[in-house]
Predict the structure.
Amino acid sequence: MDVQVKAHLFNRAQPKRGPIAMANNKATKNSKKEEEKLPKKSIADLLKQLALATSASSEDDTEEQKPKPMSEYKFWKTQPVTKFNEAVSEEGPIDRREDVSRVPKEPYAILDLFEWSDLDIEDDSEMSELYELLYEHYVEDHDSTFRFAYGKAFFNWALKTPGWKKQWHLGVRVKKTKKLVAFISAVPATLRVRGNTFKAVEINFLCVHKQLRNKRLAPLLIKEITRRVHLENVWQALYTSGTLLPSPISTCRYAHRPLNWEKLCDVGFSALPLGKTRAQMVAKYALPSITKCTGLRRMEVRDVDAVHSLFTRFQKRYQLTQLFTKEELTHLLLGDDEEQEKPDGEKVIVTYVVENTEKKITDFFSFYVLPFTVLNNSVYKSLGVGYLYYYATETGLDKPRYDAQATNELKKRLENLISDALVLAKGIGMDVFNAMTSQDNVLFLEDLKFGPGDGFLNYYLFNYKAFPVGGGFDSQTREYELEKRSDVGVVML
């Protein structure tokens, strides 16, 4: 089995996922007046530039979203993945030789300069090493302006989901100095593809030190994490990439919603449109100061049973989903005990429920926070970035998904719920809010002033053939599919 890294929920699709190669067309800043005349990076550019985190096959990939002959995919052609244009007649595993006794018991050989290392993320010093590696090498722009600001709380949330295993936090160190120079992770998952449910893993955070990209460490990391996953009798994986690999089960489009347009403009990521004033742009993206949904409050542990029931029923409308136990959903929507005690402004994951007058939970929504550090700016040191995560509502669940009345009711309800999410996100310092065309998001993206991005995120299944799953946009016109919507119910971190 080969598994590959995902792309972050940002919006850049052209450069190779190396960590992130961010193409910058920054305008020269001479004066305030001249600056506004020159073409700055737009919000779309900002998000575009951050979609392509390190690719598991970065040494094989092309920058264009066009398939190459399979013979040119040196690594992926050896793996149990669906080939381009391969006809799928039946869904299911590609390699059915699922026998743990056949799995090598020893790690794959690695260059003598390096050694494998199981990273102990419960150890503060090793957590700091992971932070440093990802901060310096996972996401970067060409002029070193922005970097993801990971923290201990984020890693605890993303890498310590129930059932996590230390051996699935795989590092590579320089043998002589013990310096951490590469990493890949897997976390357990239960996936549903239409009527089929199976154990799998999600692959994330594949990162190789910039100076070691020619050592073929990325494919080796994938092979080794695959071996370790197989030893636990798990044979499938889910991964995402902004790069086109053999062969996506679905593709979703990025969308972004400015929350603090003036700040984004000041740091050079939003252009002042011709004929518009700054005041007009600020007014365009203005939000109410308070939320509108009656009964809206923070989710608490006591809500887990009700939220789990609602979410499970709501997710049945999609064809590609992840099934969560109550323990898993508690972790993903509330975090650990320490996270639950924090105010919203300090949390990694923020979740709200709507409770009606009969004390029934009728809705919930969530978003997670992963800010940027802004380098070389005398005024701003960070950008607050929120990402729409999971949500569910009772609205329309009593009718078929594509019923006209149910769709209209769902559209209105989601607009209200996600509008409140935007208000809350801005209230805790978020400057931009990102979403995909997955779930039922296309029903509200345009009306809530999300701008369609230029980046696309491909979803892949390892060792599993499946019919295509709609991603919420037309592959020819690139426009939102308002009627069909998306059948992707999975949100990858």
Remarks:
- The longest strand covers residues 180-193.
- The chain has two domains: 32-250, 254-455.
- The CA atoms of residues 149 and 372 lie 5 Å apart.
